[in-house]
Amino acid sequence: MKLATWNVNSLRVRLPHLTDWLAQAQPDIVCVQELKCEDAKFPRAELEAAGYQSAISGQKTYNGVAILSRSALLDVSTGIAGFQDEHKRVIAATLGELRVICVYCPNGQAVGSEKYAYKLRWFAALKEYLAAELSRHPGLAVAGDFNVAPEDRDVHDPKAWEGQVHVSEAERSAWRALLALGLKDSFRLFEQPEKIYSWWDYRMMGFRRNAGLRIDHVLVSAELAKRCTACKVDKAPRKLERPSDHAPVIADFAEDQSISA
DNA sequence: ATGGCTACGATCCGTAGA
Predict the structure, then answer these.
(1) Which of chain B's bases lie under 7 Å from a protein CB?
(2) pLDDT tens for residues A168-184?
(3) What pTM does this model have?
(4) How far apart are CA A87 and CA A58, in angstroms?
(5) Residue partners of A240: CB distance under 8 A and separation at least 6
(6) Strand nucleotide closest to residue A165 (CA to C1')
(7) Is 60 exceeded by the pLDDT of residue A190?
(8) What's the CA A240/C1' B6 distance, rounded, in angstroms?
(9) Which of A7, A62, A71, A92 meets the CB 3.0–4.6 Å disulfide criterion with A101?
(10) Catalytic residue positions of A, numbered
Protein backbone atom coordinates (compact mmCIF):
# COMPACT_ATOMS: atom_id res chain seq x y z
CA MET A 1 0.00 0.00 0.00
CA LYS A 2 1.40 3.34 -1.04
CA LEU A 3 0.50 6.56 0.76
CA ALA A 4 1.73 9.86 -0.67
CA THR A 5 1.60 13.56 0.09
CA TRP A 6 2.01 16.38 -2.40
CA ASN A 7 1.62 20.13 -2.16
CA VAL A 8 0.55 20.82 -5.77
CA ASN A 9 0.43 24.66 -5.49
CA SER A 10 -2.83 25.08 -7.46
CA LEU A 11 -4.75 21.99 -8.47
CA ARG A 12 -6.09 23.68 -11.61
CA VAL A 13 -2.58 24.41 -12.92
CA ARG A 14 -1.13 21.07 -11.79
CA LEU A 15 -3.93 18.66 -12.70
CA PRO A 16 -2.06 17.23 -15.72
CA HIS A 17 1.04 16.69 -13.56
CA LEU A 18 -1.08 15.07 -10.86
CA THR A 19 -2.91 12.66 -13.16
CA ASP A 20 0.32 11.73 -14.97
CA TRP A 21 2.01 11.12 -11.63
CA LEU A 22 -0.91 9.00 -10.33
CA ALA A 23 -0.59 6.80 -13.42
CA GLN A 24 3.18 6.51 -13.04
CA ALA A 25 3.59 6.19 -9.26
CA GLN A 26 0.37 4.23 -8.61
CA PRO A 27 -0.25 5.45 -5.05
CA ASP A 28 -3.27 4.05 -3.23
CA ILE A 29 -3.87 7.18 -1.16
CA VAL A 30 -2.69 10.74 -1.82
CA CYS A 31 -2.91 13.71 0.53
CA VAL A 32 -2.96 16.90 -1.55
CA GLN A 33 -2.38 20.45 -0.31
CA GLU A 34 -2.74 23.99 -1.66
CA LEU A 35 -5.63 23.19 -3.97
CA LYS A 36 -6.42 26.94 -4.25
CA CYS A 37 -9.76 25.72 -5.55
CA GLU A 38 -13.36 26.00 -4.40
CA ASP A 39 -15.17 22.71 -3.84
CA ALA A 40 -17.57 23.47 -6.70
CA LYS A 41 -14.61 23.71 -9.10
CA PHE A 42 -12.80 20.60 -7.87
CA PRO A 43 -12.02 18.26 -10.83
CA ARG A 44 -13.76 15.27 -9.29
CA ALA A 45 -14.68 13.64 -12.61
CA GLU A 46 -11.13 13.82 -13.98
CA LEU A 47 -9.76 12.19 -10.82
CA GLU A 48 -12.48 9.53 -10.87
CA ALA A 49 -11.49 8.77 -14.46
CA ALA A 50 -7.94 8.31 -13.13
CA GLY A 51 -9.30 5.83 -10.59
CA TYR A 52 -9.49 7.97 -7.46
CA GLN A 53 -12.28 9.05 -5.16
CA SER A 54 -11.87 12.39 -3.41
CA ALA A 55 -12.62 13.90 -0.02
CA ILE A 56 -12.10 17.65 -0.26
CA SER A 57 -12.01 20.82 1.79
CA GLY A 58 -11.29 23.70 -0.55
CA GLN A 59 -11.48 27.46 -0.71
CA LYS A 60 -10.83 30.13 -3.29
CA THR A 61 -7.23 31.33 -3.90
CA TYR A 62 -5.57 29.94 -0.78
CA ASN A 63 -5.03 26.68 1.12
CA GLY A 64 -7.35 23.75 0.41
CA VAL A 65 -6.71 20.06 1.09
CA ALA A 66 -7.93 16.75 -0.30
CA ILE A 67 -7.47 13.03 0.17
CA LEU A 68 -7.54 10.92 -3.00
CA SER A 69 -8.05 7.19 -2.71
CA ARG A 70 -8.63 4.10 -4.79
CA SER A 71 -10.96 2.77 -2.07
CA ALA A 72 -13.85 4.28 -0.14
CA LEU A 73 -13.20 7.24 2.17
CA LEU A 74 -15.35 6.99 5.30
CA ASP A 75 -15.95 9.21 8.34
CA VAL A 76 -14.58 12.28 6.59
CA SER A 77 -13.98 15.25 8.88
CA THR A 78 -12.47 18.66 8.19
CA GLY A 79 -10.50 21.08 10.32
CA ILE A 80 -9.06 20.65 13.80
CA ALA A 81 -11.76 19.82 16.33
CA GLY A 82 -12.19 22.72 18.76
CA PHE A 83 -9.96 25.12 16.81
CA GLN A 84 -11.64 27.93 14.89
CA ASP A 85 -9.84 28.49 11.60
CA GLU A 86 -10.89 30.30 8.41
CA HIS A 87 -8.23 28.38 6.49
CA LYS A 88 -9.00 25.00 4.98
CA ARG A 89 -5.93 23.10 6.15
CA VAL A 90 -7.03 19.72 7.51
CA ILE A 91 -9.09 16.81 6.25
CA ALA A 92 -9.29 13.28 7.63
CA ALA A 93 -10.82 10.02 6.44
CA THR A 94 -10.90 6.35 7.36
CA LEU A 95 -9.98 3.55 4.95
CA GLY A 96 -10.51 0.18 6.56
CA GLU A 97 -8.19 0.03 9.60
CA LEU A 98 -6.30 3.12 8.50
CA ARG A 99 -7.05 6.70 9.58
CA VAL A 100 -5.47 9.28 7.28
CA ILE A 101 -5.13 12.96 8.18
CA CYS A 102 -4.01 15.40 5.48
CA VAL A 103 -2.50 18.65 6.78
CA TYR A 104 -1.38 21.93 5.28
CA CYS A 105 0.38 23.61 8.19
CA PRO A 106 0.73 27.40 8.17
CA ASN A 107 3.80 28.97 6.58
CA GLY A 108 4.48 31.41 9.39
CA GLN A 109 5.95 34.08 7.09
CA ALA A 110 8.62 35.39 9.49
CA VAL A 111 9.66 34.69 13.07
CA GLY A 112 7.89 37.11 15.37
CA SER A 113 5.12 37.98 12.89
CA GLU A 114 1.39 37.58 13.55
CA LYS A 115 1.38 34.67 11.08
CA TYR A 116 4.18 33.01 13.03
CA ALA A 117 2.16 33.27 16.24
CA TYR A 118 -0.80 31.75 14.37
CA LYS A 119 1.46 28.93 13.15
CA LEU A 120 2.51 28.06 16.70
CA ARG A 121 -1.10 28.23 17.99
CA TRP A 122 -2.13 26.05 15.09
CA PHE A 123 0.52 23.42 15.88
CA ALA A 124 -0.52 23.36 19.55
CA ALA A 125 -4.11 22.69 18.47
CA LEU A 126 -2.94 20.05 15.98
CA LYS A 127 -1.08 18.21 18.73
CA GLU A 128 -4.21 18.00 20.92
CA TYR A 129 -6.27 16.88 17.94
CA LEU A 130 -3.77 14.17 16.97
CA ALA A 131 -3.58 12.91 20.56
CA ALA A 132 -7.35 12.36 20.47
CA GLU A 133 -7.24 10.75 17.02
CA LEU A 134 -4.42 8.41 18.10
CA SER A 135 -6.45 7.22 21.07
CA ARG A 136 -9.23 6.20 18.68
CA HIS A 137 -7.16 4.97 15.72
CA PRO A 138 -4.07 2.82 16.34
CA GLY A 139 -3.34 2.82 12.61
CA LEU A 140 -2.89 6.53 11.98
CA ALA A 141 -1.00 8.43 9.27
CA VAL A 142 -0.60 12.21 9.23
CA ALA A 143 0.69 13.37 5.87
CA GLY A 144 1.19 16.80 4.43
CA ASP A 145 3.13 20.02 4.15
CA PHE A 146 4.25 20.74 7.72
CA ASN A 147 6.30 23.80 6.81
CA VAL A 148 8.92 22.69 9.31
CA ALA A 149 12.36 21.27 8.50
CA PRO A 150 12.87 19.08 11.58
CA GLU A 151 16.68 19.02 11.71
CA ASP A 152 19.64 20.79 10.15
CA ARG A 153 20.21 17.82 7.82
CA ASP A 154 16.79 18.67 6.31
CA VAL A 155 18.11 22.10 5.28
CA HIS A 156 20.42 22.75 2.32
CA ASP A 157 22.24 25.61 4.10
CA PRO A 158 21.62 25.45 7.85
CA LYS A 159 23.83 28.46 8.49
CA ALA A 160 21.89 30.71 6.11
CA TRP A 161 18.58 29.43 7.51
CA GLU A 162 19.53 29.56 11.18
CA GLY A 163 16.70 30.96 13.27
CA GLN A 164 14.50 31.58 10.22
CA VAL A 165 10.91 30.54 9.82
CA HIS A 166 10.60 26.75 9.07
CA VAL A 167 13.65 25.93 11.19
CA SER A 168 13.26 28.09 14.32
CA GLU A 169 13.50 26.40 17.70
CA ALA A 170 9.82 26.99 18.52
CA GLU A 171 8.74 25.36 15.26
CA ARG A 172 11.06 22.39 15.73
CA SER A 173 9.81 22.06 19.29
CA ALA A 174 6.23 21.96 17.96
CA TRP A 175 7.32 19.22 15.54
CA ARG A 176 8.98 17.21 18.33
CA ALA A 177 5.76 17.51 20.35
CA LEU A 178 4.02 15.58 17.55
CA LEU A 179 6.71 12.88 17.70
CA ALA A 180 6.26 12.78 21.50
CA LEU A 181 2.69 11.58 20.89
CA GLY A 182 4.24 8.41 19.48
CA LEU A 183 4.25 9.42 15.82
CA LYS A 184 7.27 8.53 13.69
CA ASP A 185 8.74 10.43 10.75
CA SER A 186 8.51 7.60 8.21
CA PHE A 187 11.39 9.10 6.20
CA ARG A 188 13.74 8.64 9.16
CA LEU A 189 12.74 5.02 9.74
CA PHE A 190 15.18 4.20 6.95
CA GLU A 191 18.71 4.97 5.85
CA GLN A 192 18.50 7.87 3.45
CA PRO A 193 20.93 9.60 1.12
CA GLU A 194 22.12 13.04 2.22
CA LYS A 195 20.61 16.28 0.97
CA ILE A 196 17.11 14.97 0.30
CA TYR A 197 14.51 17.74 0.25
CA SER A 198 10.85 18.09 -0.71
CA TRP A 199 10.66 21.81 -1.53
CA TRP A 200 12.88 24.10 -3.59
CA ASP A 201 12.48 27.84 -4.10
CA TYR A 202 11.31 28.81 -7.58
CA ARG A 203 13.84 31.66 -7.50
CA MET A 204 17.60 31.52 -7.94
CA MET A 205 17.44 28.13 -9.63
CA GLY A 206 16.75 26.53 -6.27
CA PHE A 207 16.03 23.11 -7.72
CA ARG A 208 19.09 23.02 -10.00
CA ARG A 209 21.26 23.92 -7.02
CA ASN A 210 19.34 21.48 -4.78
CA ALA A 211 18.80 24.45 -2.46
CA GLY A 212 15.83 22.92 -0.67
CA LEU A 213 14.13 22.04 2.57
CA ARG A 214 12.50 18.80 3.70
CA ILE A 215 9.18 20.11 4.97
CA ASP A 216 6.68 17.57 3.55
CA HIS A 217 6.30 14.56 5.79
CA VAL A 218 4.44 11.32 6.40
CA LEU A 219 4.05 10.70 10.13
CA VAL A 220 2.90 7.25 11.22
CA SER A 221 1.66 5.76 14.47
CA ALA A 222 3.76 3.05 16.12
CA GLU A 223 1.40 0.36 14.81
CA LEU A 224 1.66 1.64 11.27
CA ALA A 225 5.43 2.15 11.53
CA LYS A 226 5.78 -1.62 11.97
CA ARG A 227 4.36 -2.07 8.47
CA CYS A 228 6.27 0.77 6.82
CA THR A 229 8.84 -0.54 4.32
CA ALA A 230 10.07 2.67 2.63
CA CYS A 231 9.69 6.42 2.37
CA LYS A 232 11.06 8.45 -0.51
CA VAL A 233 10.83 11.82 -2.19
CA ASP A 234 9.96 11.57 -5.88
CA LYS A 235 11.81 14.45 -7.55
CA ALA A 236 10.56 13.62 -11.05
CA PRO A 237 7.51 15.96 -11.09
CA ARG A 238 9.72 18.87 -9.93
CA LYS A 239 11.69 18.53 -13.18
CA LEU A 240 8.68 19.12 -15.43
CA GLU A 241 7.71 22.38 -17.13
CA ARG A 242 5.80 24.67 -14.78
CA PRO A 243 6.16 22.43 -11.73
CA SER A 244 4.88 22.75 -8.20
CA ASP A 245 7.66 23.99 -5.91
CA HIS A 246 7.07 20.82 -3.82
CA ALA A 247 7.80 17.21 -4.78
CA PRO A 248 5.63 14.28 -3.67
CA VAL A 249 6.72 12.12 -0.74
CA ILE A 250 5.62 8.50 -0.90
CA ALA A 251 5.60 5.89 1.87
CA ASP A 252 5.19 2.15 1.34
CA PHE A 253 3.44 -0.25 3.71
CA ALA A 254 3.32 -4.03 3.83
CA GLU A 255 -0.20 -5.42 3.47
CA ASP A 256 0.64 -7.69 6.42
CA GLN A 257 -2.49 -8.59 8.38
CA SER A 258 -0.83 -11.02 10.75
CA ILE A 259 0.18 -10.16 14.32
CA SER A 260 3.45 -12.08 14.27
CA ALA A 261 5.53 -13.96 11.72
C1' DA B 1 22.62 43.22 -2.46
C1' DT B 2 16.58 40.98 1.93
C1' DG B 3 16.18 40.60 -4.49
C1' DG B 4 15.54 36.64 -7.27
C1' DC B 5 9.72 32.95 -9.08
C1' DT B 6 4.82 31.48 -9.30
C1' DA B 7 -0.35 31.67 -8.63
C1' DC B 8 -4.16 34.43 -7.96
C1' DG B 9 -7.43 38.10 -8.30
C1' DA B 10 -7.69 42.04 -8.99
C1' DT B 11 -5.13 45.07 -12.55
C1' DC B 12 -0.84 46.57 -15.45
C1' DC B 13 0.20 45.87 -8.99
C1' DG B 14 -0.50 43.64 -4.35
C1' DT B 15 -0.71 39.41 -1.46
C1' DA B 16 1.06 35.09 -0.33
C1' DG B 17 3.92 31.34 -0.40
C1' DA B 18 8.64 29.16 1.89
Answers:
(1) 4-9, 16-18
(2) 999 999 999 999 999 99
(3) 0.96
(4) 9
(5) A17
(6) B18
(7) yes
(8) 14
(9) A92
(10) 104, 145
